[in-house]
Amino acid sequence: FTDGESAKMRVLVVAARRDSVENLLATVRKAGLVPELVDLSAFAMVRALYVPAPVARPGGSDGEGASGEGASGEGDGARAAGAAGGEAGLATLYCYVGGVTNLAIAVGTTCAFNRVLPNGVESMAATLAERGGLTLEHARQWLQHVGLERDTEGMEGEAKILDQARQVLQRGSARIADDVRLSMEYYQSAVPDARRVEQVIVAGPGIAIEGLPAVLEAELGLAVEPRSLGQVEVIPGVLDGVEGSELTIATGLALDEVKA
């Protein structure tokens, strides 16, 4: 998009189904509340990223009887369940690390808790831009280039900016992890019958920063999986030149339904 004078900027327009929004608003109004703003991003995130847990077959995956590995619940099917949508009754924490960090805790496809955290990729980029005298776009590129895993010695780029980017990433990722941990603690104490969180799914531009999911996994003590889209099938070539990690929320809004 451009007005003819300014530089071009990319714009993504997404349409959500009216009946999906109206059903949510009807529930709020029925409770006697007057909605002033509708933020569907948490629901969209869960819809886009959710993957149902495979059903474990009796007797294990190799067809053995009750004496086999599957009888104890420790077979391949049980392990696969933890890696996909989680065990029945347990919760999954979805975390979209973008301009801010959007957090949602869901049981299956039902969102039980949502919170928007102020720290995200954009706040880190703004900090680096200010310290290094960079544009925001260049700061974002430096954050992706440096990441959190590789040694900065020998890395291409000015040493001062490399060190600044690494420091910003370390402090920023620690803040995000702290915010997520505190949100989980609040969820467990404030939500009636809160289900235990068993895994974390990380999405958004943050997963393009090498090492960020691993830092969150170490800080939270939970399995963390980076994911852009869940059950969504993408036609080959359609997303060429587009970062799939930036389309998670838009995809969730556009989905007609999600199979639980």
SSE blueprint:
Elements: H1 18-30, H2 41-49, H3 76-83, E1 91-97, E2 101-107, E3 110-117, H4 121-132, H5 136-146, H6 159-190, E4 197-203, H7 212-220, E5 223-226, H8 248-254
Parallel strand pairs: 1-4, 4-5
Antiparallel strand pairs: 1-2, 2-3
Helix pairs in contact: 2-8, 4-5, 4-6, 5-6, 6-7
Describe the structure.
- With 260 residues, the chain is an alpha/beta fold.
- It has a single domain (18-254), classed as ATPase, nucleotide binding domain (Nucleotidyltransferase, domain 5, 2-Layer Sandwich).
- 39% of the residues lie in helices and 13% in strands.
- The chain has helices at residues 18-30, 41-49, 76-83, 121-132, 136-146, 159-190, 212-220, 248-254, and strands at 91-97, 101-107, 110-117, 197-203, 223-226.
- The chain has a five-stranded mixed beta sheet with strand order 3-2-1-4-5, sandwiched between helices.
- Strand 4, helix 7 and strand 5 form a beta-alpha-beta unit.
- The protein is globular, with a radius of gyration of 21 Å.
- Mean pLDDT is 83; it is low at 62-84.
- Residues 58-81 are annotated as: Disordered.
- Residues 60-75 have a biased composition (Gly residues).
- This is SHS2 domain-containing protein.
- InterPro entries: FtsA/MreB, PilM.
